[in-house]
Design a protein that fits this description.
Helix content: 40-55%
Number of helices: 21
Length: 446
């Protein structure tokens, strides 16, 4: 007889959120020393977990205390002033969109996104030291192709196991088209939203499409908090800022590439669209990263010059923001002669233990890889994934930028052929959809 199944919802329970509230307070400069002391005195751990739930559920007493502490920290965060980012973007100079790119450019953006994501999927959560151990043990360091278990000693995989789901579908020996991933589902949602509601869609439209097309179990961190807030009947314009310690994590950045693709050469318009989407779930650096991704993708549609792409991304970042400072550092490092692994070391030192799903560290890693590679596709995606953290997400973003610059027909066969021009997805009417068809539909939105 099998043991009874017990569902444990991740990224949702107070005892699993309290450490993340402490982390968000740290990054906003909000004093929560009293709350940390109270939680630790009761036997709680103040350091946020790297996963979505603790190994053992908290007692009823500890859960109640965690909820109370989360509420107190949330009240302090709500009182912390925030930049009027919509005004910041509105005040930027207008840039008319460039001539409409050809279909091959749109195909490259979609296919490049898929390839960068697929490369990073098996080692999502493995992190940098494990990635290197896997590759060195099998004679494949530095990374030059999709991961494989062939030649990797069993003891290495015991210490650094593949991502639970992706190890079954995203290694060289088992790839069968592009596997489902939220990094591809969200661009599909963006496509469906613009197709249905037009270029003037709003945040409520994004919420509508989430509830109709995204299974709750396919969303995580900030998006899961928002999903719950929406089902409580709260206004889509406020749900992202309520009880959400993940509002600066990477979940908005991964949703916004399409807004760049449909605003070729116009980073401001791309960023403004991105913020209307991102506002549903993110604030502060979470918004800025989403806008930056859209802006870089907008410029990648019309230039082969990676500096123009990076300039577009920086143009939508508030200069005093944490993401601007981290990305400025890595752009400088990427353009230096310093050994690449040492540049990544310096980034890790700069972000000082930031969670592996945060926007700031991942965006800065993407900038580092783009600057060092000069936009060359294979170098860019492999350098990104070797850096660790949210490997599939930032790998996807870098892949879409470099894929657009290169064009779908020129993406090397080693990356394109295993994808087989098709995507698995639980989004309605999108399972086994062809990337060439997605390119046609996206092209039609310009």
């Amino acid at each position: 007889m099998s043991s009874p199944f017990k569902l444990r919802v991740t990224w949702a329970q107070p005892e699993d959120l309290v450490g993340h509230f402490f982390g968000q307070a740290k990054y906003e400069g909000v004093d929560v020393a009293a709350e940390i002391s109270e939680w630790e005195a009761a036997g709680g751990v103040s350091q946020a977990s790297v996963v979505g739930a603790s190994a053992v559920p908290a007692s009823a007493q500890m859960r109640e205390l965690a909820g109370a502490i989360c509420a107190r920290v949330e009240a302090k965060l709500q009182a912390n002033p925030e930049l009027d980012y919509e005004k910041f973007l509105n005040d930027l100079p207008d840039t008319p969109s460039a001539q409409k790119p050809d279909l091959n450019t749109f195909h490259g953006a979609w296919l490049g996104r898929a390839a960068g994501c697929l490369l990073g999927k098996p080692v999502e959560k493995v992190q940098r030291v494990g990635i290197r151990a896997i590759l060195e043990s099998s004679g494949r360091w530095p990374l030059k192709q999709y991961f494989t278990a062939q030649g990797v000693p069993a003891e290495v995989l015991v210490r650094h196991p593949w991502n639970t789901q992706s190890g079954k579908t995203c290694l060289q020996e088992n790839i069968d088209g592009m596997a489902e991933d939220d990094d591809l589902n969200y661009p599909l949602i963006a496509l469906l939203t613009v197709e249905k509601f037009g270029r003037d869609f709003n945040t409520d439209h994004i919420a509508d499409q989430w509830l109709k097309n995204l299974p709750a179990g396919k969303v995580f961190t900030a998006e899961r908090i928002v999903y719950r807030n929406l089902l409580d009947g709260l206004d889509p314009m406020v749900v992202g800022g309520l009880n959400n310690p993940f509002k600066e994590w990477i979940g908005a950045l991964i949703r916004t590439d399409l807004y760049g693709w449909i605003n070729p050469g116009n980073p401001k318009a791309a960023a403004q669209m991105a913020v209307r989407d991102a506002w549903l779930s993110h604030r502060r650096n979470g918004l800025y990263g989403a806008a930056m991704s859209a802006a870089m993708n907008a410029m990648a549609m019309v230039t082969k010059d990676i500096d123009q792409v990076l300039d577009a991304g920086f143009s939508v970042l508030p200069p005093e923001s944490a993401i601007y400072k981290a990305c400025a550092l890595t752009r400088e490092l990427g353009n230096s002669d310093l050994d690449y692994e040492l540049t990544v070391d310096k980034l890790y030192e700069h972000v000082d233990g930031m969670h592996w799903v945060h926007t700031v560290n991942n965006a800065a890693l993407g900038v580092l890889a783009l600057a060092r590679s000069k936009g060359e596709f294979s170098t860019a995606i492999t350098h990104t994934v070797m850096g660790g953290w949210d490997t599939d997400s930032i790998g996807a973003t870098v892949g879409s930028i470099c894929g657009a610059m290169l064009g779908g027909a020129a993406i090397p066969a080693q990356w394109a052929d295993p994808i087989d021009n098709r995507l698995t997805s639980s989004i309605p009417d999108c399972d086994q959809i062809k990337f060439t068809d997605l390119a046609v539909r996206t092209h039609a939105l310009v």
